[in-house]
Structures are given as structure tokens and as C-alpha cells.
Amino acid sequence: MAPAWLSFLIRGIIAVLFGLVAFIWSGFVLEVLVYFFGFFVIINAVVTLVMGASSEHPPTPRWLLLLVGILGLGLGILALLSPMVVVVAFLYLIAAWALVAALGDFILAVSVAGDWASRILLVISGILGIIFALIIIFVPLLAELVLVQVLGIYAIAFGVIGIIHGLSLRGQADAAAGRPAA
């Protein structure tokens, strides 16, 4: 079994490499993620269909399992045949959320009792939410690439922290064993 420090080190290196790939080749990473999603949904749908068709006493009504399986199969096939449709649908969901959150900020700004600074911050937050949603709606290609790049930045940061932690654990293990630090 590998020592804990090595696991963190390897995980960190892989995360940094993934982050660099996501940051440099955002379109490629996004496409690969959609294909993974499509295959996952198809496998899940097939398992659900088998459970719905073959279980003597399924945990949920048989018709519901079959419906979920068929819908999942359709979504998975759509993701594989037309990945950009899935990406754009996901982006529009994010835009819808941003608009709802912005509306909530405006309502709070008007209805909350408090100082003007809090109200102004809520209005600014609402305006930013609307701008964010409009960028997604009118420039979806830019939005999808930025989302993948943010994922890449996160993966790099996660990886660097993992590498540092792994090396720290190695130093602790070496010190506990009485070996000089490498």
C-alpha cells in the first residue's frame, strides 16, 4: 500500500496537469466532459431500464423506472450526438439562476430595513447577476470557455495544495523514522 504522502503527491500532480489542460485547451476539456456525461447517463439509463424491466419487486413503480430510463437514454444519446446542445442548456440554467438571484437581491434591497450601504451592495450584486446572465445568454461560447478555465484554475490550486501537503507528510514521516529530509 502506498504511503499517504505519495497518494497526495500523485493526486496533486494529476490535478495540476488536468488544470493546465483545462486552462490551455478549454474547448477540448469541455467536449470530453460532455462525452463522459453522455456515457454516464446512458449507462445509468440502461441500469434503470434493466431494473424496471426485470425486477420482480422494484423499489419504485415500474413505469417510473422505465420512464426515467428512456428519458436518460435520450439525454445521453443527445449529449453524444450533439454535445453543444447540452452545454448551451447547462449555461442557460446558470443564466436563469443568475437572473433569479438578481431579482432576489433587488427585492431585498427594497424591502430590507437597514443602512443604505447594505442596500447599495444588494443592488450592485443584482446588477452583476444580470450582467453575468446576459453574457451567458448572448455570448455562450465565451461563457463556456471561461467556466472551464475557472475549473482549470481550481484544479491547479487544488493540485498545488495536494503536492505541498504530500511533501509535508513525507517530511513528517521521514522525521518520525529518523531519516534526513530529502
How many structural domains are formed by the residues?
1
The major β-sheet equals: none
Mean pLDDT over all positions: 87
What is the strand content? under 5%
Count of alpha and pi helical runs: 6
Tell me how many strands there are.
Answer: 0
Q: Sketch the topology as an H/E string, one letter per element.
A: HHHHHH
Low-pLDDT segments = none
Shape assignment: extended
Instruction: Provide the structure class.
Output: mainly alpha
Instruction: Round the Cα radius of gyration to an integer and report it.
Output: 23 Å
How much helical structure, as a percent, in the residues?
Answer: over 70%
What is the first-to-last residue Cα distance? 21 Å
Overview of this structure, please?
- By secondary structure, the protein is mainly α.
- It has one domain (4-174).
- The chain is built from 6 helices and no strands.
- It has helices spanning 4-24, 26-54, 62-81, 83-111, 116-138, 140-177.
- Helix 2 (26-54) crosses helix 4.
- The longest helix is centred in the last third of the chain and has 38 residues, at 140-177.
- It is extended.
- The two termini are 21 Å apart.
- The mean pLDDT is 87.
